[in-house]
Amino acid sequence: MSGKGKVVLAYSGGLDTSVAIKWIQERYALDVITLTVDLGTHEDLEKIRRRALDVGAAKALVVDASDVFVDYFIWPALRAGALYEGVYPLATALGRPLIAKLLVDTARQEGAHVVAHGCTGKGNDQVRFDVGIKTLAPDMQIIAPAREWGMTRQEEMDYAARHGIKVDVTKKSPYSTDENIWGRSIECGALEDPWAEPPADAFAWTVDAAEAPDEPEYVEIEFQKGVPVALDGGQMSGVVLIQELNRTAGRHGVGRIDHIENRVVGIKSRELYEAPAAVTLHTAHSALEGVTMTRPASRFKEVVSSHYADLVYDGLWFSKFHQDLAAYVLSSQQVVSGSVKMKLFKGQATKAGLRSEFSLYRKALATYDKGDQFDHGAALGFIALHGLPVRVQAQVLKTALPEETVRPQLSPPEIKPE
Ligand code: ARG
């Protein structure tokens, strides 16, 4: 390594970050140390490492962060029921704060005062990286080449050719994708037309529901305090469990999501996701909560879930508000243990059955058959008191308001133009 300053670059091995190695050297005259983080998709890390060195990195580091990602990012998000706008399990969004943390840690170890990432100036990921990095290390400087260089994709390829950077552009997909163990995100290309149905070549982890097996497949997922611990009776690590479920559910076409999403930076964008394990696990987890939580707890959890999803999406992982919500979530999950039988069939993961030692379901109370223990007489008194406020109000309003405002409206009020 030369005597120049150093920068730690988050390196995926793709075109953008490969060009970034050279561009940073030219523009900023810094030694580039690349950091490649595996979040459970088990890419060929050695190949990526060698490519970084070939392009001219002074040092190339790789780290397998799969277990940390699952235990400290994915499971907390699953327990929280974090689905952005009700559908997106946040794979990309959850990965960013962990990569930000590893960038900062590596910079400290290597004596670098600058870190870099390959995000453009239009997306959410730059927000997540920058906010995460600056929260953890306010003194750290950030270079985002793709936000600064203003090159088109073609210009980037020309730049790569001029500098002898060999990136396999023949395999280049027409989409911008990002993937980790929790899911695959797909953007751009034909997807930018919201009228166009997603083309088949956008998908890599899931089959079309129409081509899925004609027989359903069942999987039994055991949860302990909101965390999946076993699949079909076999205990396994979180990483293995998610990988296995990605394959099984993906085979049945489960986990395709087509979403017009509100980005942090204010635009709406068309996003496709493939998240077979995430969708199956969220569905199972929420079914288990449904049977183990009381009604107000369930209602409140919905509010918590949506705030939790927003803060992850918005790049506010390292915030006090997150810690506060996580504390509530953790406490709420003490009863979320048990097993859920999921049916995977033609693109759907549905609950086929469940059981839990904390189940609040009582057949003796619910049954319409013999053995009913529900106190029917008590229902009359309950109804009298439950309906009391609304009966009083109706009496009051009848005299206080003109007849037509009391009468139920049969059609919505007309909005007259000015
Ligand atoms: N819209 C998603 C998010 O903000 C996915 C971003 C994926 N990034 C990509 N390069 N395709 O979390």
Structure explained in plain terms:
Helices cover 43% and strands 19% of the residues. The protein has 418 residues and is of the alpha/beta class. It folds into 3 domains: 158 residues, HUPs (Rossmann fold, 3-Layer(aba) Sandwich), CATH 3.40.50; 143 residues, Argininosuccinate synthetase, chain A, domain 2, CATH 3.90.1260; 43 residues, no CATH class. The strands form 3 sheets. The protein has a 5-stranded parallel β-sheet with strand order 3-2-1-4-5, with helices on both faces. Strands 10-9-8-13-14 form a 5-stranded antiparallel β-sheet. The model has no long low-confidence stretch (mean pLDDT 94). Arginine (ARG) binds next to helix 4, strand 6 and strand 7.
What topology emerges from the helices and strands here?
Elements: E1 6-10, H1 15-28, E2 31-38, H2 45-55, E3 59-64, H3 66-80, H4 91-110, E4 114-116, H5 125-136, E5 141-143, H6 145-148, H7 153-162, E6 176-180, E7 183-187, E8 217-224, E9 227-231, E10 234-235, H8 238-251, E11 256-262, E12 268-274, H9 276-292, H10 295-313, H11 320-332, E13 338-345, E14 348-355, H12 363-366, H13 376-386, H14 388-400, H15 403-406
Helix pairs in contact: 1-7, 3-4, 4-5, 8-9, 10-11
Arginine binds at residues 92-93, 124-125, 176-178, 185, 187, 261, 271.
Provide mean pLDDT, rounded: 94
| Content of β-strand | 15-25%
Q: What is the 3D shape? A: globular
Q: Cα distance, first to last residue?
A: 72 Å
The fourth-level CATH homologous superfamily of the largest domain is: HUPs
